[in-house]
Write a structure and sequence with these properties.
By secondary structure, the chain is of the alpha+beta class. It has a single domain (about 1-180), classed as Roll (Bifunctional nuclease domain). It has helices spanning about 40-50, 60-70, 105-115, 125-130, 170-175; strands at about 5-15, 20-25, 30-35, 75-85, 85-95, 100-105, 120, 140-145, 150. Strands 3-2-1-7-4-5-6 form a 7-stranded mixed beta sheet. The longest helix has 11 residues, at about 40-50. The relative contact order is 0.18.
Amino acid sequence: MATKKPVRVRIKRVGMDPEGRGLVVLGTAKRDLPIWIGPTESQAIVSRMKRTKLPRPMTHDLFVNALAEVGWEIDKVVVSDLRETTFYGELHLRSGARRKVIDCRPSDGIALALRAKAPICVAPHVFDLAMMPPPVQQPEPAKDAHEGKARTRRAGSPACPDPSLSTPKRSARRSRRTSA
């Protein structure tokens, strides 16, 4: 069976979910891939996206600079798998005709790719494994006690993490997508 080529994606959003966890959303025009990340990794991604100038190199900058000093560069980063609740990544390096693939956390890979101006890709099967269930409409929208506004929430989404609101068929798929 042939392996499908990774799909190039862009960073659609970086921030915090309603529970205060770091979140990066990768995607194409047709599909999104939410990956929960730590606050340090979130800051490393955001600082590069905003082109923040720092007086000294941070860890991701140092790594890209060290690779360049020894003649290697980042070719691409691939979110390569989702097992249980963990996303896996690969850092693809090149030096002339030589190639190496190194295991990495997707969040670190994304931060490195931004600094190296390298493409960020996702293996097609990862989109399928992490697919979010469709919105579940509640008969009556839930009242938000703090704001007094009615809201309809997506079952199993960061805004409505209560797994009891999703259907049994969907809960197996939903349980596979969590943090990196």
